[in-house]
Amino acid sequence: MNEIISLLQNHRSIRKFTKEAVSSEQLSAILTAAQAASTSSNIQAYSVIGITDVEVRKQLAALAGNQGYVNECPLFLVWCADLHRFEQAVQLHGNTPVTGNAENFIIATVDAALAAQNAAIAAESLGLGVVYIGGLRNNPSEVSQLLELPQLVYPVFGMCIGTPDQEPLLRPRLPQEAVYHENRYTDKPSAINVYDETIRTYMKERTGGKVDTTWSKEMAGKAMRPREHMKSFLRTQGYEIE
Length: 242
Ligand SMILES: Cc1cc2nc3c(=O)[nH]c(=O)nc-3n(C[C@H](O)[C@H](O)[C@H](O)COP(=O)(O)O)c2cc1C
Known about the structure:
- There is one protein chain.
- By secondary structure, the chain is α+β, with helices and mostly antiparallel strands.
- The protein has two domains: 3-168, NADH Oxidase (3-Layer(aba) Sandwich), CATH 3.40.109; 176-218, no CATH class.
- Helix content is 44%, strand content 12%.
- The chain is built from eleven helices and four strands.
- The chain has helices spanning 3-9, 24-35, 54-63, 68-72, 84-91, 102-125, 140-146, 176-179, 190-206, 215-220, 230-236; strands spanning 46-50, 75-82, 129-133, 153-162.
- The protein is globular.
- The protein binds flavin mononucleotide.
- Flavin mononucleotide (FMN) is lined by residues 11-13, 15, 67, 131-135, 157, 171.
């Protein structure tokens, strides 16, 4: 196993950080790694906003569901899907404006996620820890107003970065045969039973025996329609998702 694979396999989200700042050299290396990610047709349909203003950070922490680590982490980045710059480039040539149709929505969202994940790995390779913050989508309109996002830009998620001040257990993943299929999709329901027991053991260990749950039970609790406001919010940002 090489160092990169070992780093990837040792990922765990970090939610408690020391006060040590992320240096401008570290930030620059993280962003350069993010920019090296593959990107649909070289559109680079994303932007990332570093939040250095204490007040803005406080407001974002509240908007993300009062997640304290958003406020406390040394570096907080907001990853945005961004077709605005693409539109500006297109308009330089008098072409028709870019639409936020379903395909362009996918392109921009995937581009933002790929760049962010490169950033996360780069940060971890520097000994830093990260956690994604999808909680920003609890209040996407307020976040967009606060960050003055133009049309065709929307916040996909935030990311806390800093020196870890905790060593969480690795969260086990599904058995590989559950996610890997050969040649055709094959249902493997028994993998869920296997994973349920893995998660039961993990949760007991993580909580000192206080929580007895399984993966499927946790998923059942999430089976409602999450963040139903996203459809109308995306429309206000210029994405026509039906
Ligand atoms: C897009 C995305 C959004 C997430 N949002 C949050 C969040 O708002 N708050 C949080 O504490 N963790 C968040 N997470 C972290 C996940 O809970 C975590 O990655 C998952 O439980 C697996 O745990 P691990 O990263 O420690 O392996 C998010 C992860 C992703 C990929």
